[in-house]
Amino acid sequence: MSGVTMWERVRRVAGHEGRWLVSLGCWVARRRIGVGAGDRPFGYGAAQAAIVYGLTFVCAVETTALAVLLVDHPVAHLVMLVIDVYTVLTMLGLQAAAVTRPHVLGAQALRLRDGPRMEVDIPLERIESVRYDLRFTKAEKQRKGEGRDDLLELAVAGQTSVTVALREPVTAERLLGRRTEVRTVRFHADDARGTVAAVRAAVAAVAAEAASGSRGAAVGAGDPPPVKGPAVA
Question: How far apart are CA 105 and CA 98, in angstroms?
């Protein structure tokens, strides 16, 4: 994270907190963030929903238990109540961010997201291949050791299900500002096979459009100059 100051890191963390707080409001309003007309969203929050709701329930039980235990200690009770409520909101906010900030497939780019933590835009013309590829990231790291520098994994509940290989690298920026050039991206989608099919179709459409434009330019360059007819009085 060289080159990133402490204040910049604080600003980024504050931005992260703000994003999940905004996501809570959008979740209640049933709105999605950054999905335009004609874009195709692909969710990824279902895989972690049970874990998040389970942890939220545990936190709520803990909050109730501490409220009873600290009833005779008002200051400690208030401090722990604020901490516990904020913890519950954080858990719900992370799930809300996963729901309201889906992956987005546009006409020219694929935007991949990791809740409020990060997002990376991949131009479709840079995608070499995309395939269904279910992996459990912890098991992969234990089997192969440290991960590659040119690999980005956006895991949900410890798993990825789609692998995208790139012709040219893209820049991924981590939460605290560290930037890496990646050539392979693994991410999770609830409908992984449907996501793969949609991305393949979009990549093929962009390639066909580019090929058509190249042929048109070549034909135009080879056309003879127009012949001027006689002027009409």
Answer: 16
Q: pLDDT tens-digit profile of 209-227?
A: 888 876 666 656 555 555 4
Q: Which residue has the tokens 């590829």?
A: 133
Average pLDDT for 44-53:
93
User: Measuring CA to CA, which residue among 154, 161, 170 is closest to residue 101?
Assistant: 154
If you write DSSP's letter for every residue of 121-145 in order, what string do you get? Answer: EEEGGGEEEEEEEEEEHHHHHHHH-
Report whether 100 contacts 127 (CB < 8 A): no
DSSP 231: P
Q: Rounded CA gap, 155 and 188, in Å?
A: 6
Radius of gyration of the chain (CA): 24
Find out whether 188 and 152 touch, Cβ atoms under 8 Å. Answer: no
Confidence of residue 175 (pLDDT cuts 50, 70, 90): confident
Counted residue by residue, the chain has a size of: 233
Going by C-beta distance under 8 Å and a sequence separation of 6 or more, which residues neighbour residue 20?
Answer: 90, 93, 94, 96, 97, 115, 116
Give the span between the Cα atoms of 117 and 178, in whole angstroms. Answer: 13
For the record, the structure tokens of 109 come out as 């780019």
Higher-confidence residue of 186 and 177: namely 186
The DSSP output letter for 107 is S
Angstrom distance (rounded) from CA 159 to CA 49? 14
Give yes or no for a contact between 109 and 122, defined as CB atoms under 8 angstroms apart: yes
Give the pLDDT confidence of 140-174 residue by residue, as tens digits: 554 554 556 789 999 999 999 999 999 999 999 88
DSSP state of 60: H
What is the model's pTM? 0.82
Residue 190 — φ and ψ, nearest 5°?
-60, -40
